[in-house]
Amino acid sequence: MPLHFLTTSKNKFAEVQRFFPEVEMLSVDLPEIQEFDLQKIIEHKLETAQNFLRYNSAHRVDQFFVEDSALYIRCMNGFPGPLIKWMEKQMKAEGIANLVMQHPERRATAKSMIGYVNLAVQPMETRYFLGEVQGMIVQPRGKNDFGFGPIFLPDNVWKTFGEMTREEKDRYSMRGKVLRELMGYLEKI
Fold first, then answer.
1. Which residues contact 36 (CB under 8 A, 6 or more apart)?
2. CA atoms within 13 A on the CB side of 58
3. What's the whole-number mean pLDDT along residues 18-25?
4. Best CA proximity match to 161, nearest among 108, 116, 121
5. How far apart are CA 102 and CA 22, in angstroms?
6. Residue 164's closest CA among 174, 104, 90?
7. Which residues of 35-57 are buried (b: 16+ CB within 10 A; e: fewer)?
8. In the prediction, which pLDDT does 124 show?
9. pLDDT digits (tens, 9 = 90+) for 57-115
10. Deepest of 59, 141, 148, 175, by most Cβ within 10 A of its Cβ?
């Protein structure tokens, strides 16, 4: 029973594939509700994905997952959170860093949440997993990552995600943490 990851992000899929080499990508552009609660976004993505798979999928999908990331910046009262994708699209990582650099408080929390569904069991199984990393916002450093990676410096590490090798990022990132949680869960069942 293959595991499917529903995403349009080739960068995210490449990270997931390092943890799950046999995972299959279903390139589905799931709408994201504009919400500050990361779990509500994931719940909506899962519901939309189930409807899509029920009516549009060319082949059977028994188990799948979706993922979303967020960046909670302390000096901005947690903004942009899950809206980081849109803020980064408008301002780029450098613009976000420049905004934060105007404040003495530069702490931030990066989160990644996965929603997993197994349609092959009755009743249908749904699980949520959360990975979280504390750190701070810095001026952009490195080109090895996408999104806010070049401006996020995890605590107790001297490289931004943008400066890290793939192996380092997999070890320290919020997505690496949440993928290890999913992996541990799937190994148990």
1. 78, 81, 82, 83
2. 3
3. 96
4. 108
5. 45
6. 174
7. eeebeebbbbbbebbbebbeeee
8. 87
9. 666 889 999 999 999 999 999 999 999 999 999 999 999 999 999 999 999 999 999 99
10. 148
- Output the CA–CA distances (angstroms, integers) from residue 57 to 3, 24, 125, 140, in the order listed: 15, 13, 20, 40
> What integer pLDDT is reported at residue 113 of this predicted model?
98
Question: Which runs of consecutive H residues, i.e. helices, occur in the chain?
Answer: 10-19, 38-56, 84-100, 166-172, 174-188
Q: How many alpha carbons fall within 13 Å on the CB side of residue 110? A: 24
- Residue 88 structure tokens: 């980064």
**Residue 187 has which token pair?**
């190994």
Domain coordinates of the chain in residue numbers?
Answer: 3-188
Mean pLDDT within 160-168: 96
- The three-state secondary structure class of 154 is strand
Yes or no: say if 154 and 148 are a contact pair by the CB < 8 Å rule. Answer: no
pLDDT score of 57 = 62
Beta-bridge partner residues of 45: none
> Using CA atoms, how far apart are residues 163 and 133, in angstroms rounded to an integer?
16
pLDDT score of 1? 74
Instruction: Let me know: does 65 contact 116? Beta carbons within 8 Å.
Output: yes
